[in-house]
Every structure is written in C-alpha cells, then in structure tokens.
Write a structure and sequence with these properties.
The chain is 39% helix and 12% strand. By secondary structure, it is of the alpha/beta class.
C-alpha cells in the first residue's frame, strides 16, 4: 500500500496560528475577558499600529475588505450613475463594491508583464462619467501611484485596493483612501473577516468612522455622510487583538515568504514563468503565481503529489455574469491572456524545508511532464 503524498496546501490558517499560538491565544483571551467586544482599546491600538506600519496617517478597522472598499467609495462622494475604473484582473469585490453603490465599473486592461492596471489603457477608458479609479496591488505587487492618469485628470479620485498588500511596504499607493482585507488567508489575517480603510486626513477618517457606525456624528445624531446612510461595519475587538499580534510579526513573515519565493523561482528558472517583477520576489508575496499554457493540467499533476494550487483568477472581471449589462466592458486582451494561464502555488512563511523541497520537486516533475506530453 503506497503512502499518501506529502500535503502542502496553498493556504493554511491553522499552521499560521500554530506558529504563534501562545501570543495569539493570549491576545484573544485578553479581549474576551475585557467584556469590551466592539469599539474598545484593542481596536484603537491596532488602528494606530496599522497606520504606522502602512505609512498612512490614519486607519479605520472595519468588518471586511469588501466593506473597506465600499466605505472608501462612499466617503469620497461616489454617487449612483458615476463610473469607476477597475483593472480587469482582480477579485470580484473590486467591481462588486462599485456595483453595490449603483455606480458602473469600467474595465481597464492590465500590463503585459504584470497583472496590474495599465495606466495608458486607463487614460483611454476615461469618459465624462468617470469619477474614480481603483488600482489593485494584486498579489502584494506595487501597482504604483498612477502619476500619468492623475496628471491627465487631476479631479479623478483614487482608492487603492490593498486587499492583498499588507506588509508590501510603507506608503504603498497614491490614492485618497486605501482598502485592506484581513481575510484569514491573507498575509495579515484575522480569525474571521476583517478589513481597514487607510486615510490621508482626519476629516476623511471621521467620514469612514461615521459611515461604519450608522452615520452617528459627534452629537449622537445619525446623519447622512456624503449623501449615504451609514451602516454597521465595525472591526471586532477579538479580531483586532489577534491582528495586533500578527502585525508585530509581519516583517519577519514577509521576509520568510520572499526567501521561499526566491528558492522556488530560482529552482524553476527556465521551466516556468512566474509573475514577479524583473528583480525577483518583492512585497509580501501574498500569492506566488505563475503562468502556464495548461494551468488545469498543472494543477492536477500538483494535486496528485499533494501540492495545493488554485486559479487566481480563472476569468477576468469582464467575464463575470454579474457585470453583464452593469459595467462598461472594453477589450482587455492582456487580462484575458493572464486569466487563461494563471495558477498560484504554495509560498507560505510556515512551510518547512521539506515542504519547500517537495513543492520544488513537484513543480519540476509536473513542468517537465507537461512539456513532453501531447496537448
């Protein structure tokens, strides 16, 4: 009877917890024993530390990355009927947040070298109804500050989608707001959903706080904010306490991910094409993604050896059913090509030496077999 293959999942929140369990559990217990579960000292301390780590003046903890995007768009005054530029490669929430506010996403193609918003195509996509742009720092890659786009259209509002970019460097992005996600599989992950809005000034910070707390103002009255009725989008004390521990170890964990990525990429040079800047792994390596003409076949061969992988993303945003008739769809050939070929493979900071070696050997075996196999 043959032994089961070594299991190396793409994500493992349980392994991440085990690596720092005493500190995480102590923080959780402290929050539970406090009896203060919403809007207390744990959230305040985390928001201050997060803003400092990200290089932004203010951070507001919220209930999810999706809510972070929605609140940021509300706070900048987006209205139904406005248009918003979004890259055609991203998680659905980037466009979904726009749709939920009654606005219209406009598809923008990505660069040929990296799946990041193509600034020149964004300029071509501009129109009289475009009010904002949401560049996405996908996989923790730096999407830049869109200087050409903002220079050509100074009135354009920008929200940086930083959902996958915590730990990728200070002051990432050049927008008025930044939106983070703390979904458990993120590099900075919570024990459940969570997110944050990064802000440049105190007035914007207060707008976001009020929108996430039913529009409640200084007098206790509930008012519309930028025309919007606020809701409940608060980050829990329990999540904030654990995230504060995660934030302390973030630089070390990012460095470990970069080392692991460099080893995998170096070992596969000439066999596989990884989605990285020319200088190699940078940022937080939220996902180590590669491009292959047969990603489904590569996935199956890796799975047979116990190595997890997943399509990020199997279709462009413009191909999502919910956007049909609700978005301004434009030709995005680079995005379509990327989505046909993309596959993410394990690159976690908690992987052992044996795990990394198994991933490398499995990728070599799969890549060589597919290079020789008939299509």
């Amino acid at each position: 009877m043959s032994a089961a293959p070594r299991a190396v999942p793409l994500h493992s929140p349980a392994a991440r917890h085990a690596a720092d369990a005493p500190a995480r559990e102590a923080a959780a217990l402290r929050a539970l024993r406090s009896g203060r579960y919403v809007g207390g000292p744990e959230r305040d301390a985390f928001e201050a530390a997060l803003a400092d780590a990200m290089g932004w003046p203010f951070a507001v903890g919220v209930s999810s990355g999706t809510e972070a995007l929605s609140l940021a768009l509300m706070a900048l005054g987006l209205q139904p009927g406005d248009e918003v530029l979004v890259p055609a490669v991203s998680f659905f929430a980037t466009a979904g947040a726009v749709l939920r506010l009654g606005a219209r996403p406009v598809m923008v193609d990505v660069r040929a070298d990296l799946p990041l918003m193509d600034e020149q195509d964004a300029i071509l996509a501009m129109g009289p109804q475009v009010r904002a742009a949401v560049p996405v720092h996908l996989f923790g890659l730096d999407a830049g500050a869109t200087p050409s786009l903002r220079g050509a259209y100074p009135a354009l509002q920008v929200v940086d989608d930083l959902a996958q970019a915590a730990g990728s460097g200070p002051s990432l992005g050049g927008g008025r707001f930044g939106a983070l996600s703390f979904y458990p599989t993120k590099v900075l992950g919570a024990p459940g959903d969570g997110g944050a809005v990064l802000c440049r000034d105190i007035d914007d910070q207060q707008r976001v706080v009020r929108l996430g707390h039913h529009g409640r103002g200084p007098t206790g009255a509930h008012e519309a904010v930028e025309g919007w009725i606020g809701g409940n989008a608060r980050l829990s004390e329990l999540s904030a306490a654990v995230l504060r521990v995660e934030l302390d170890s973030l630089p070390a964990r990012v460095a470990a991910r970069q080392r692991t990525a460099a080893r995998i990429v170096g070992a596969l040079r000439g066999r596989l094409r990884f989605v990285l800047p020319p200088g190699g792994p940078t940022g937080n390596v939220a996902l180590l993604c590669l491009r292959h003409p047969r990603p489904a076949a590569l996935h199956d061969r890796l799975a047979a050896r116990g190595v997890g992988s997943a399509r990020y993303y199997p279709r462009s945003l413009g191909a999502e059913p919910a956007l049909q008739g609700r978005a301004r769809l434009r030709p995005c050939p680079e995005a379509e090509a990327f989505c046909r070929e993309a596959l993410a493979v394990p690159c976690r900071e908690d992987m052992t030496e044996a795990d990394v070696e198994h991933v490398i050997l499995s990728l070599i075996d799969a890549a060589d077999a597919l290079a020789q196999a008939p299509r």
